[in-house]
């Protein structure tokens, strides 16, 4: 597939993978950047296929790298030039996952290597690709399972080893397998009615008329998408802001917080804005929401989305949620902190490879500083939600205990209407959703009071 002069499909995929890894962009935003400079009659077709390649390569990267490392003998894919490593990942993916004829996959990669590097590097890659073609993955995995069952799970289901170890510790082996399997299944889509402009019954009728089959959920303004003829993002009501795509557990946060019309609400980590916008709808555009985020670009995207959704009571503030203070205290606070995103692997497989224990400790420090600052911004008697899309107890229950014991917040015994309860001594008073149990992102919510 030729896109424009001397740029092949494999180069476009490799460029997107580079942005995902070096800039830590999502697959979606990496593709947006790459395709700004792509032209040609095959552009739209290539965009869809590129997204599929990038998404699947990130999902299966541990297994892909296991294959490459097994034939490298003595070194690893991490030792290679990153662009070259990504080309090898593309080739391996084509041969072992998409079942592209090996000669075709190898030739496509070699042509790019010759263009980008030199003949000696092309010779090296050609030899590797032939070894990759002949590599018996199932036989190697069987040997690995006999030697190290945790590493086998990590490679077989393509998850970081730390994640597998952690899941086995807090769940058990069999349930961890179910979680890993669920993380690798296609993302389940949920749509939330923008109740400023429509209601959930009207939305369901509209979707049905347009070939989208839905089901009701435990969250009253959210529908589960079961089947569709046309992607919901192509429908007029989506383009007009009458509904948004929002994960089920994420959409539960605003209902747990229950902001009232006329109240002052603070969102300390607002972008991309889903919970802010949901709170605004529940408040019927009355009162004030101060939406704080450290990313100016993301706030500007929120500004555009606010116009579409007809939201009028949100004030955007470019600031750090760890230190932001306002002149007046707030009645309610949404604190959906930055986290390891270990509950979102089905939706964003690239985040699997971005965290290790050292980085997670740093993010926990950020979370605790934001909890302290939330306490300072909350009026006496005010309420807040603390939420993450993480499976980890140290980001969830342990941080709530920190808020109780060190920040002097009180945990509210909220009557959660669905989901599971959590861990430790506060487990019965917090909310957890799991990908394999609830068909949404794994998620944590606690409601606190000053």
Automatic annotation (TrEMBL):
Ligand binding (S-adenosyl-L-methionine): 269-275, 293, 320, 336
Residue intervals of the SAM-dependent MTase RsmB/NOP-type domain: 179-450
UniProt feature coiled coil, ranges: none
UniProt keyword annotations, A-Z: Methyltransferase, RNA-binding, S-adenosyl-L-methionine, Transferase
GO molecular function, a single term: RNA binding
Superkingdom: Archaea
GO biological process: regulation of DNA-templated transcription; RNA methylation
InterPro entries, per database record: MeTrfase_RsmB-F_NOP2_cat, MeTrfase_RsmB-F_NOP2_dom, NusB-like_sf, NusB_RsmB_TIM44, RCMT, RsmB-like_ferredoxin, SAM-dependent_MTases_sf
Keyword Membrane among UniProt keywords: no
Family: Belongs to the class I-like SAM-binding methyltransferase superfamily. RsmB/NOP family.
Protein name: SAM-dependent tRNA/rRNA cytosine-C5 methylase
Lineage: Archaea, Methanobacteriati, Methanobacteriota, Thermococci, Thermococcales
């Amino acid at each position: 597939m030729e896109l424009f002069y001397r740029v092949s499909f494999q180069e476009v995929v490799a460029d997107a993978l580079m942005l995902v890894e070096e800039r830590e962009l999502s697959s979606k935003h990496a593709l947006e950047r790459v395709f700004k400079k792509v032209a040609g009659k095959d552009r739209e077709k290539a965009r869809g296929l590129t997204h599929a390649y990038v998404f699947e390569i990130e999902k299966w990267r541990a297994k892909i790298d296991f294959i490459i490392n097994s034939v490298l003998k003595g070194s690893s894919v991490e030792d290679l030039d990153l662009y070259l490593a990504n080309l090898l990942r593309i080739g391996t993916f084509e041969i072992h996952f998409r079942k592209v004829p090996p000669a075709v996959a190898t030739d496509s990669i070699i042509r790019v290597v010759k263009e980008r590097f030199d003949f000696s590097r092309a010779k090296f890659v050609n030899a590797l690709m032939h070894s990759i073609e002949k590599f018996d993955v199932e036989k190697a995995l069987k040997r690995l399972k006999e030697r190290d069952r945790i590493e086998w799970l990590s490679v077989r289901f393509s998850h970081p080893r730390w994640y597998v170890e952690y899941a086995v510790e807090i769940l058990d082996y069999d349930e961890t397998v179910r979680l890993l399997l669920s993380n690798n299944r296609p993302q389940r889509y949920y749509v939330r009615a923008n109740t400023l402009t429509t209601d959930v019954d009207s939305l369901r009728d509209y979707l049905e008329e347009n070939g989208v089959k839905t089901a009701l959920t435990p969250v009253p303004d959210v529908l589960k998408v079961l089947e569709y003829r046309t992607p919901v993002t192509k429908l007029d009501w989506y383009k007009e802001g009458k509904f948004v795509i929002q994960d089920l557990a994420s959409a539960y946060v605003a209902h747990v917080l229950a902001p009232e019309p006329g109240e002052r609400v603070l969102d300390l980590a607002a972008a991309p804005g889903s919970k802010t916008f949901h709170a605004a709808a529940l408040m019927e555009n009355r009162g004030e929401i101060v939406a704080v985020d450290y990313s100016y670009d993301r706030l500007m995207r929120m500004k555009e989305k606010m116009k579409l959704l007809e939201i009028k009571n949100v004030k955007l503030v470019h600031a750090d949620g760890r230190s932001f203070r306002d002149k007046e205290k707030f009645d309610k606070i949404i604190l959906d902190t930055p986290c390891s995103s270990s509950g979102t692997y089905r939706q964003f497989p690239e985040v699997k490879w971005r965290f290790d224990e050292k980085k997670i400790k740093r993010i926990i420090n950020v979370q605790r500083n934001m909890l302290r600052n939330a306490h300072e911004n909350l009026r006496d008697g005010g309420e807040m939600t603390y939420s993450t899309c993480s499976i980890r107890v140290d980001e969830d229950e342990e941080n709530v205990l920190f808020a109780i014991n060190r920040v002097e917040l009180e945990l509210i015994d909220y009557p959660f209407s669905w989901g599971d309860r959590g861990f430790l001594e506060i487990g019965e008073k917090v909310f957890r959703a799991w990908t394999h149990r609830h068909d949404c992102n794994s998620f944590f919510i606690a409601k606190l009071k000053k």
